[in-house]
Amino acid sequence: MNHSVLHPLAFAAALAFLPTAHAQTAPRTAATTLDKVIVTGNPLGSSELAAPVSVLTGDELVLRRGSSLGDTLASQPGVSSTYFGPNANRPTIRGLDGERVRMLTNAGGSLDASTLSYDHAVPIDPLFIERLEVLRGPAALFYGGSALGGVVNAIDNRIPKERIDRASGALELRLGGADRERGGAAMAETGNDRYALHLDAFGRNTSDLRVPRFTPVEDGSSLPEANRVRNSASRTRGGAAGASVFFDQGHLGLSVDTYDSDYGTPAEPDVGIEMKRDHLGMALALDKLSGPLRGLRGAFNHTRYRHQEVEGDGEVGTVFKTRGNELRLEAEHAALGALRGSVGLQLEDADFSALGDEAFVPSTTTRRQALFALEELGWAFGTLTAGVRVERASVRSVGDADPDEPKFGPAMQRRFNLRSGSLSNVFKLDPQWSVSAALSLSERAPTSFELFANGVHVATGAFERGDADLRKERGSNLDIALQWRSGEHHLRVGAFATRFSRFISLEATGNTVTELDEDGNPVDFPEHEFRAVRARLNGVEIEGRTRLMESAAATVDLSGKLDFTRATNTATGEPLPRVAPARLLLGVEAVRGPWGARIELDLAAKQNRVPSTDSPTRGYSIANLALTRRFTLGQSDGLWFVKLANAGDRLAYSASTFETVRGLSPLPGRSLKTGVRLSF
To answer: In angstroms, rounded to a whole number, what is the distance separating the alpha carbons of residues 362 and 406?
Structure first.
């Protein structure tokens, strides 16, 4: 047996004989069970939302945790990932990625450099997250144009939101998997009626990812067969301390946290990335106020981010730095008859620098100021919600760092006035059935790299040119859905249509640009330019769960998720690149006393609807199995799990991966992973 499987088996055997928990232990929480009010994009705390939202929490989150957000969320409808190897794996929503999908922590921006390049990881580790919310579709009203495609909100309790009347904590250990993960996280909290304190720490080491034997392809040439993805190991550490003080009508809190990760990317076998992010957060909440304001929420985030690419000889190549601040205020006004509403302010600034021979963007400063409002009205046809956002954005390039080596031109600044709006309605047909519709109009300012890029982007293997004259991106979206809920059964069928009159896309020009390598030899790179084109995206998302059998001793549930997105550049008639194919996820889950088991089949169709600059990606069918057991250990409640992933060891590739790395980085092969979580 593979050596990487023996360690998890030994761990599993030891845990299987721990004392059994009582059969009345609380049931596991599925991803589709909305056991709390949705936080993301929901300032009024409404229980019924027109926007499609997925939630991962509880046992389901423990079982789905991967080494990245993209891996953790891969099973959610409408969500795929950039998969630039297992470490740089950013979520993609409905075929949109990068600057159109906003990464949040407790509704605050991540303020990193992950949107600049596909080999840049998101500095949010799933190990410390308590809850993940994914809002599919435009959320520009609340979070700006960078949420035009959707939002991923990682929620933790680093700033305690509720009083803590006793000491508590959790410990989670994980071992095995295709990347031979050795990871763990610990959390402790204590407090009284007035104060609360939170501490956490986490760490993870992984080795090069094991995959089915394959022939790597680089620059169109075949390399020797391999069963590991080269340069895909990682080491990650982090932790946080936070505290809150409570008073009669709310709380005020502060937290500091750090994230430190060293990892490789398959595109560059002799280059390692060293990333560090330090973050300070503050939060204020006031509830049950009298007068014109009924509630007030405030949050401030300060981030310092550093990312350097280190050559095999230890020489630092390119250094990326970001220093950013975000202030967000939301106030709920007193009801005006049947009308409830909230108004808000968002201020954001970020100073970015890229220094080194491989820097393809200049140092820039970005500023955003926005006002937004949301109003909700109950009427004869359900709940009507309308919102509007006005925003000013400026992007300034400092120009050439060295005037003797002109590359980015003189310093210049672009300013944009942006407007976004939304209108939605949720209509309850009866206690089980509801129908919803949401229409939104969104605008996004071009990013610094879309405006000012000019150089070889090693991750994509292309010479990328920005366009300083780009206008703001503009799109409209319609979401409709039919939903049914009855006890343990639910079904949601949704469809969306998105139209862009100006969609900023990185397009191949058909030309080549010759650059000199470090030895002075000429190398040709394909030229790509950022252009505004017309685009159309349509899709369907279906998810459901039904209880097949229920008795006093056991339950059996069937679940399924189907999604499909069709994306087209209507200016050329060609498909947009890196869009996931039709996917189907089927699962059967059985629970008997403290034991649980799940069998899952992950199906993806062949993606042959690709632009001429890309190549088709074949489909796959992957079977996954999981076994869980609840137990008690002293005063602690525990969950043990073991997972067999890709049981058939099928060779598979992600269609949403950039083509330069797709042939170097298949999806993980057969692996066994085990872990345990204790809560006390």
So the answer is: 11
